[in-house]
Amino acid sequence: AQSVTQLDSQVPVFEEAPVELRCNYSSSVSVYLFWYVQYPNQGLQLLLKYLSGSTLVKGINGFEAEFNKSQTSFHLRKPSVHISDTAEYFCAVSSNAGNNRKLIWGLGTSLAVNP
Amino acid sequence: DVKVTQSSRYLVKRTGEKVFLECVQDMDHENMFWYRQDPGLGLRLIYFSYDVKMKEKGDIPEGYSVSREKKERFSLILESASTNQTSMYLCASRPSGLYGYTFGSGTRLTVV
Question: Measured between alpha carbons, how far is residue A4 from residues A89, A98, A104, A105, A110 in Å?
Answer without folding.
Answer: 13, 19, 7, 6, 16
